[in-house]
Request: fold
Amino acid sequence: KRKKTKTVTTNKIKKPVNVAITGAAGNIAYSAIFRVASGQMLGYDQPINLKLIDIEPAMNALKGVKFELEDCAFPLINTITITFDLNVGFEECDYALLIGAKPRMKGMERKDLLKDNGKIFKPQGEAINTVANKNIKVLVVGNPANTNALITMHNAPSIDPKQFTSMMRLDHDRSIAQVANKYKTSINEVKKVIVWGNHSNTQVPDLSYCEVSGNNIKDIINDSWYENDFIPRIQNRGAEIIDARGLSSAASAANAAIAHMRDWVLSANDWLSIGQISNGNSYGISDDLMFSFPSICSNGNYEKIEDVSMSEKLNDYIKITEKELIQERDSVLDLL
Reply:
C-alpha cells in the first residue's frame, strides 16, 4: 500500500505595510529603525516598506542609514525609501513614528519651542491628511510631544482623532522600573501603573492601583518615598539622564516608541499610559488636550479606563498638568 502523504499548509504571507519614521537621521530614530526592521514593533511575520523622512540637509546621513539597513539583510524589509518630501514619505502610510523635532535650546522658553515645532508638525499633519491611509496609527515622540500631537491631529481632519497618540510610554516604563527596584522584584511582577497628563515635569505618576506580584500596593502612597522620591524622579528623569550622560534619552525613548506601537497594534495584558485626545473623558479634564490617561489595548484599538478614582492630593497634581497643557494649546491656537 502507498502511504498517504500529508499536506503541509504554509502561513499566508502578509502584505507589506508602510511605516514612516521622521527625524530618521537622528539618534532616537537610529535606535529604533533597526528594531522596527527586525519585526520587534509589528511582529515577526509582518513585511514592511520603510519610509524614512528627514530634512534635506540630512539626506546624505540618511543614505548611510539605508546602506546599513540593506547590509543587515532583514527578511521583513520589502522596500526602503528615504525622502525629505512629506507627501512621498507619508503616502499610503499605515503607521507613523513622528520623532523629528527641534530641541529646546538654552534660554528658549517652552512657548517658543512649541511655535518652532508647530512649523514642523502642522505640515506633517496636512500631508498625513492628504496622502496617508485613513486608518493610520500615529505616535508623536518629538517634544513637546503632547501638544505636537495635538497640532498634527488638528491638521489632519479627515483622520479619526483617536488615531493620533503622544508618547507617555517612557514615563510609564520608568515608573514600572522604579517600583520594581523598590520592591526588589522582576519588571513582570509590576502591573497597573498610571502616568497622567503631560510628558513634562508636571506629569503625575500614580500607584493607586499598582500591583506587585498580584498584591495592591496603594499603601505606599502614604510612604515618604512616594512623594519625595518616586514622583520627582519620574518627573525629572530626563534631566537626570542628561546630567549623567551629557545627552538626552535616545535608546530608552526608542524602546518606548516601539513598545507603545507594538501594544497598540498587537494588544497587551496590562494597563498602559497613552497620550490621547481628552474629548468626552469622565475625569473632568478639559476637551481638546492630548492628555495621558490609563488605557487598555485590544484588537488594534485602545480605550480609556474610565472607573479610576483618585485621592484629593493626586487630583491637585493632575490639575497642574492639565493647566500646563491648556497653556501650551492656547499658545499655538493659530496652528490648530
